[in-house]
Amino acid sequence: MSVVALVVDDSMLIRHTVCRFLEVRGFAVESATNGQEALEALKRVRPDIIITDIQMPKMNGSELITAVKNDPALADIPIVIVAGRKSGFEDTEKHANYTIFKDIDIENQLAKALQAIFGAKAQPARSSI
């Protein structure tokens, strides 16, 4: 049984980068372009981790995080924020487990976040070549 991740970002490039990174490491990945889509996805799947942008249309990341943390069935899901350094969310968002920044090496930061949240089982998949 694989670990499931929900990736929420309105940037197709960031969403694709994060999804590929996770898929290579054996995660089953669901994705959404905003918080509203993410809440719809959460009706179908219960992820082991949510990775979300903060600034998105329709429903932003802070609103999504609040909705998740207020739902007892979802409240224990670890959340990683992916944001621009100057987005200012750090002063208001206190519910995320980890934060990574878009303007720095996302994959390296994501590896550290997965290690912090999942421990040894988050190690990158070894190549069989």
Map the helices and strands.
Layout: E1 4-8, H1 12-24, E2 28-32, H2 35-44, E3 49-53, H3 61-69, E4 79-83, E5 98-101, H4 106-118
Parallel strand pairs: 1-2, 1-3, 3-4, 4-5
Helix pairs in contact: 2-3
What features would you highlight for this structure?
single chain; 129 residues; 5-stranded parallel beta sheet; alpha/beta; 19% strand; globular; disordered C terminus
The backbone outline, from C-alpha atoms, is globular
Number of helices: 4
Alpha-beta content class:
alpha/beta
What is the CA–CA distance across the termini? 24 Å
Helix content: 25-40%
Rg? 14 Å
DSSP strand tally = 5
Range of strand content: 15-25%
Q: Going across the major beta sheet, what is the strand order?
A: 2-1-3-4-5
* Main β-sheet description: 5 strands, parallel
Average the pLDDT over all residues and give the rounded result.
83
Poorly predicted regions are 123-129
What order do the helices and strands follow? EHEHEHEEH
What report would you give on this structure?
By secondary structure, the protein is of the alpha/beta class. 35% of the residues lie in helices and 19% in strands. The protein contains four helices and five strands, in the order βαβαβαββα. It has a five-stranded parallel beta sheet with strand order 2-1-3-4-5. β3, α3 (61-69) and β4 form a beta-alpha-beta unit. α2 runs parallel beside α3. It starts with a strand and ends in an 11-residue tail after the last helix. 29% of the residues are buried.
